[in-house]
Specification:
mainly alpha, 3 helices, 0% strand, rod-shaped
């Protein structure tokens, strides 16, 4: 077996690209912010392969930020919907109790 040395100046540091989170946040949360996250996530591996570790870390951080922001903004309408449904349910219970005598 032959040993192939790593390329000069190359590092084997793992930098997560957060592509799965970006795709999931695009599909289920907020489409525009998820697309921004996908763009940054797709840049991570290319920059790391080119040796731009700082750029890959920056793109990874931005991909994570935009994916989490997209997921966080999706919680607002979900919470408002749940409050609305519980409020209507409470009104229904109160309205049903007033007719019983």
């Amino acid at each position: 077996m032959s040993y192939i040395p790593p390329p000069p100046g190359g590092t084997h540091e793992y930098i997560p690209n957060h592509l799965v989170w970006a795709i999931l946040s695009t599909l289920f949360c907020c489409l525009p912010l998820g697309i921004v996250s996908i763009v940054y996530a797709s840049q991570v591996d290319g920059k790391r392969a080119a040796g731009d570790i700082a750029g890959a870390r920056e793109a990874s951080g931005k991909a994570k930020f935009w994916a989490m922001l997209s997921a966080g903004l999706a919680l607002i309408p979900i919470t408002l919907y749940l409050v609305f449904v519980l409020f209507l349910g409470g009104l229904g219970v109160l309205g049903g109790l007033s007719g019983v005598n």
